[in-house]
Amino acid sequence: MFDFSGQTILVVGGSSGIGFSTAKLAKDMGAAVTIASRSEDKVRSAAQRLGGQGRRLDVTDPDSVQRFFADGTVWDHVIVTGSAVKMAAVKTLAMDDALAAMDSKFWGFYRVARAANIRAGGSLGVVAGFLATRPTAGRALMGAINGALESLVQGLALELKPVRTNAVSPAVVDTEMWHGMAPDARRAMLDGLKEKYPAGAIGQPEDIARLLLLLAGTPYATGTIVTMDGGASIA
Questions:
Q1: 8-226 under CATH 3.40.50.150, yes or no
Q2: Residue extents of the structural domains in the chain
Q3: d(CA 8, CA 70)
Q4: What are 77's strand-pairing partners?
Q5: Integer Cα distance of 13 and 202 in angstroms
Q6: pLDDT, tens digit, 9 for 90 and up, residues 117-156
Q7: N or C terminus of the chain with fewer C-beta within 10 Å?
Q8: Prior bond to 205 cis, omega within 30?
Q9: How confident is the model at residue 193 (pLDDT cuts 50, 70, 90)?
Q10: pLDDT tens digit sequence for 200-212
């Protein structure tokens, strides 16, 4: 696919799910990979499994973000995959939880975009979501956050050039995010979506990882939003 030998890649949210898959694939392609997450224990464990570097970073804490990037490291690529959000209908989701979701997924990426040092021609990437363009009842806030992210990505492509900025917007991906559900309920949900999606498949972390790195490694890609959702947005 690509040879990232000699390049440095930071994956924020890289201790699990899409982030860990992205970090692993980048390392397999020759990159020197650092993963970052707010849980020190998870970062340490993931870094050991990866055979890479791990550092703590809480994107909801402006001081943590500033300290992380204050060492002056210049990255070839920075990819933000992690966020902590609760999903429920607007009428039932606690206001504190709604504000925390926006702070984690939108403002967290915004803080990284402001603080990260990325070489000219390098890239900044983020995972948004197909709800930006395909609203679903009970997920209005998530759709709004993803829509704001997609708009921010395109604005940043102009503001940060020659650093490139891109996003991948998936539908449901089978990650640890859903492990809070009872196993039978989770399996039923995923099987139901598999039947509904035109692709007849549920997204896997590796699917999104490949696209994130495709955008990172393509000099022609900036301001690009790639929707990869198994056809969910047209079903």
A1: no
A2: 8-226
A3: 17
A4: 9, 123
A5: 21
A6: 999 999 999 999 999 999 889 889 999 999 999 999 999 9
A7: N
A8: no
A9: confident
A10: 988 899 999 999 9
